[in-house]
Amino acid sequence: MSASEVVVVAVLVFGYSLVSRRVSSWPVSMPMVFVGAGWASAALGLVELDTDGEAIALVAEITLAVVLFSDAVRIDPRRLRRYLGLPTRLLLIGLPLTIVLGTLVNTALIGGVGVVELALVAAILAPTDAALGAAVVEDESVPARDRLTLNVESGVNDGLVVPATAVLAAIAVDEERSTGAWIGFVAEQIGYGVAIGVVLGVVAIRALSWAHLARWSDGRYEQLATMVVPVVALFAAQAVGGNAFIAAFVAGIAFGAGATDPTATHGEGRAAHFAEFTDDAAQLLALIAFFLFGNVLVDGVMGHIDGAIAVAALASLTIVRMLPVWLALVGTGLRWQSRLFLGWFGPRGLASIVFGLLLVEEADELSGRSDQLFALIGLTVVASVVLHGASAAPAATRYGRWAATVEVDAPAAVGHHVPADVMPETRWSVQRWVKR
């Protein structure tokens, strides 16, 4: 980026900060603003980024790693493990079904593109992003059970879908491996990713806690050190063949579990204090990622959108998400209103943007097929930014009012009633992206 382009982005960030509280009550979200600004800056020639630049891919990877780590630090495993029924169903049943159904819908609607490439797009568009529905996860009128479910699902599915995207991308560019080699590849991605994450998270929190209690460390540098952990996890996992994003998320869980003060309420522990700067950094990086998405992908794909792409994008946000969620929740005893609510709030955002930006690196090897793939990714995310961002607040209010009139408990099939303190009034980074 040139000096003038940096100034444009800096002025935009500064300007948005001046009105951020005011616009928080409008049906306008931060992702809407910065995706729109990225597109407008490209259309007007104010900021023209190199779509082939490795720097963009690097920023995208670091952004997702830091965001995943930041979100994971806020999860209390001791409480969460008692209420994992619903998010587990969405992750282990709903997520695979979403990829399969997305592949089938894409294949039926889009011609001239191979099944593997369409499956890759379905995988890229499968992860959800709570940032686009922040009004839902921070609205305390929405049952804690549902807020917890959406938060955990959005935090974990990014990492879980990476092995699928990696395998499908490799196949799409004609990388030949045996079935056994693919199985080993996925096992290494998950196994090494988890191992790296656990080791780094535990070592980091124990070292910081020891230095803090011994009064050797300064608070400012403790927070800077925390910011380094997901970056190290990212590159360490890549170096050994593990999944970088799983490593970052698991490192966050291990980090957060290792220093929460048992005498304090959740979110007030030492780990949360160490991660305060990381939360702010995650917010800034996410903001930049939305801008990059609008600048690099949106403007470039507008000319490749046709009727089939538009229908496929709409299907991705509706039936491709909502039907698998409905099926995954069969037997839980949830009312149909709750199933529809959880199904609708599966916005596509940061993870899909990051995977889409990384896919740009493979554009040459995908040949002429890449334009349609990018068009579907770009339109789906843009539509999600608008639809989910605008509907989050009113839908949460209406659903919360309905929930107050009925007994909304987690049924026996998925665990006990979730107490209010499971979803405390803390400023998770995904919540702070829209409202602060």
Main beta sheet strand tally, sense and closure: none
- DSSP strand content: under 5%
Structural class: mainly alpha
Radius of gyration using CA atoms only:
21 Å
- The termini sit apart by 29 Å
Give the % helix: over 70%
The total of helices stands at 20
Low-confidence sequence ranges: 261-268, 409-436
Mean pLDDT: 79
The SSE string, one letter per element, is: HHHHHHHHHHHHHHHHHHHH
How many individual β-strands? 0
What is the general shape?
globular
Describe the structure.
This protein has 436 residues and is mainly α. It contains 20 helices and no strands. The model is unreliable at 261-268 and 409-436 (pLDDT under 50).
Provide a brief overview of the structure.
This protein has 436 residues and is mostly helical. It is built from 20 helices and no strands. The relative contact order is 0.19.
Q: What would the keywords be for this entry?
A:
436 residues, mainly alpha, globular
Write the layout of secondary structure elements.
Elements: H1 3-23, H2 30-43, H3 54-73, H4 77-80, H5 85-109, H6 115-124, H7 134-137, H8 144-172, H9 179-213, H10 219-240, H11 244-257, H12 270-274, H13 276-301, H14 307-317, H15 319-328, H16 336-344, H17 350-360, H18 363-366, H19 370-405, H20 429-432
